Amino acid sequence: MDIATLVGFVGGLAMIFVGVFTSGGSILGILDAPSFFVTVGGSFFSLFICAPMNQALGLFKILGRCFKTYDYGEKATVQNMVQLSEKARREGILALEEGLDDLDDPFLKEGLRLMVDGNDGSAIRSILENEMAQTEARHMEWANLVTQWAGFAPGFGMMGTVIGLIGMLRNLEDKSSLGPNMAVALITTLYGSFLANWLFGPMAQKLIWQNSREMNSKEMILEGILSIQTGDNPRILAQKLLTFLDPKSRKAIEGDVLKD
After folding, report:
1. d(CA 151, CA 52)
2. How distant, in Å, are the alpha carbons of 97, 146, 200, 225, 251 from that of 203?
3. For the whole model, what pTM was predicted?
4. What is the pLDDT of residues 2-50, one digit of tens each?
């Protein structure tokens, strides 16, 4: 469970409730089924117009990623690549084929397979960079779809408000209902803003951040494989890969990987 997402989810909702209570209102006062259907339902079904049905329907599964933590193993990558480099210098690159099928990381497995098969560095870089580009493109399609939902929600909130105002203006003779009807009309604007700024906008940014971390990990693997392929000293390889880590992570492992 990603605690940060959970804290943001619960905390944002709590702040809205606190704002309602401190302003003298009640939770029931901001609950309105028609406003919910117009804002949430209308903005969601707009996604079917701008994206294939399988993406629109699969979006909820992708949103679930925001509540999960993923270990991209940057520190472990540095240590593993140094060990592979030492083995390659000691026994030769072909020795890396042993245990290749037992690796859990498909990207690392693919890169090592290309190297063991005798491909040159330019071919390895081209294939792996294309793999990274296609993976990132798929990730960004999902993130952009969530961003679009965040953009549609306030628009449907305004439409709901206009619908409510039209109904209110048609009953101007009943002045006692103007205040309550106006309040209900404005609820859809609240819902639209809430969805955009509390849910879908931040979730899109979390997906983009996850993609950035994954691409950083793959870039480390790529640089490590090319370093092994060119016969770099394991210490040089370690120094290259340590540049991908934040200062705290780098300090935690540099004593092990930069040993003489």
Report:
1. 18
2. 40, 7, 5, 33, 31
3. 0.89
4. 899 999 999 999 998 898 888 887 788 788 888 899 999 999 999 999 9
